[in-house]
Amino acid sequence: MALQRILSALDRWVPREHIGDFDRYRQSMMALGVSLTIVVVCIPSAGFMYTVAPPEERLLVAFNTLATAALAGLTATLLHRRGLVWAGNWLAGLLFLGGCFAVLRGGGVFSPFIQIFPVIVVLATLIAVPAGMIAAWK
């Protein structure tokens, strides 16, 4: 029941021209779902990270996490006003910059955050490429 309410709330941000096209609808819902997940994870994480971070880095950690949540929230507006290309590229770019920041602050190539880079490529492909073209690559 809660999942149905979340999906119907996300449905309002899908552009009308994407509702009839299954691929575009799926890609729009994926972009919105990823952005919602980022927002939902970042907001409570900011408070937790503020408490565990060293005192000289607390403001940086909290601000970076909340700024990421705010920028991820713009995905819905970009999707509704500019389209899927803008929203997908915005989301992939945001994840890439966040991943770079996390890797640089977390130990370079030995950072556990380095694993996000292949995920960004797969996510960008799933959002940007219609399912029929992905199936043809097999």
Could you describe the 3D structure shown?
The protein is built from seven helices and no strands. It has 138 residues and is an all-alpha fold. Helix 3 (22-52) packs parallel to helix 5 (84-105), helix 4 runs antiparallel to helix 5 (84-105) and helix 5 (84-105) runs antiparallel to helix 6. It is globular and about 50 Å long.
Keywords:
138 residues; mainly alpha; 0% strand
With helices defined by DSSP (H or I, 4 residues minimum), what is the helix count? 7
Instruction: Tell me the major beta sheet.
Output: none
Helix-strand makeup class: mainly alpha
Radius of gyration: 17 Å
Low-confidence stretches: none
Cα end-to-end separation: 36 Å
What are the secondary-structure elements, in order, as H or E? HHHHHHH
Q: Specify the oligomeric state.
A: single chain
**How many strands?**
0
Average pLDDT value? 85
Helicity range of the residues?
Answer: over 70%
Percent strand equals under 5%
What spatial form do the alpha-carbon principal axes imply?
A: globular
Give the topology:
Elements lengths: L1 H10 L4 H4 L2 H31 L5 H24 L2 H22 L10 H13 L2 H6 L2
Brief summary of the model shown:
By secondary structure, the protein is an all-alpha fold.
